[in-house]
Amino acid sequence: MFLIHNMYSYIEYYCKDYLYDGEGFDYSISINNQDILYEKEKSRKEDIKEGIAIREFSDAYLETLAIYRKICRCLLDENILLFHGSVVSVHGIGYLFTAKSGTGKSTHTRYWREYFKDRAIMINDDKPLLEIKDGHVNVYGTPWDGKHRLSTNTCVSLKAICILNRGKDNRICRIDGMDAYSMLIQQVNRPVGDALAMSKTLELIDRLCSCVEFYSMHCTMDIDAARVAYEGMK
What is the mean pLDDT of residues 169-196? Predict the structure, then answer.
């Protein structure tokens, strides 16, 4: 549980489905203007790197990013990683899809929801948390769930991580953790200027590689991609 000392009220709306009314907290987080400035500069540099127009975000929204960054640093001590991807569950089993930006992760998991209907639950569409513990991985929904705000405040067992690529047909194959390693490094939250946190992050990635299955999929942008992915991984 986190006690957050925020500057703006927007975070209370942002996290409305995840608020805790009880007593007692494991961690306390405070935000200041320097945290907001850090997020603003980081966003600016990312936009320049991607060659897009620099986006202007409100300080209230930037605070949500600063808060999550601090939450994720604390959670490393609990063997929990922030991972960039889209997670859907079918019959209580989670499948995480990751890819380079713009590949179509959210579109693919939308096809899963259309194909499986009420058997599929969206866990998180952007920044889920992975708990790596005792040779097993649990994946959690979070309020940081993408522009469409798709998440569920729940936890399921994660069976597989699938790296998506655009293709002319739908095909999937299993790969090992080392084949997926470079993508894992890119898609986890990497602490900057904190050697201890980075060491812990790399340790958790190594453990992740032995806890779940990994797949590579070339897929089209149609609903049959969901069927092929599920049958290839189930």
Answer: 94
Structural contact between residues 33 and 66, judged by C-beta atoms closer than 8 angstroms: no
CB 197 within 8 A of CB 81: no
Q: What CATH number does domain 80-233 carry, 3.90.228.20, 1.10.10.10, 3.60.20.10, 3.40.120.10?
A: 3.90.228.20
d(CA 103, CA 97): 11
* pTM of the predicted structure, to 2 decimals: 0.94
Pairing between strand 2-5 and 27-30? parallel
Spatial CA neighbour of 91 closest among 136, 131, 121: 121
Q: Is the predicted pLDDT of residue 101 greater than 90, yes or no?
A: no
Q: Which residue from 46, 67, 65, 66 is spatially nearest to 55, judged by alpha carbons?
A: 46
CB-based burial of residue 171 (10 Å sphere; 0-12 exposed, 13-18 middle, 19+ buried)?
middle
Where in the chain are all domains bearing CATH 3.90.228.20? Answer: 80-233
Using an 8 Å Cβ cutoff, are 86 and 97 in contact? yes
- Are 54 and 44 in contact by the 8 Å Cβ rule? The answer is yes
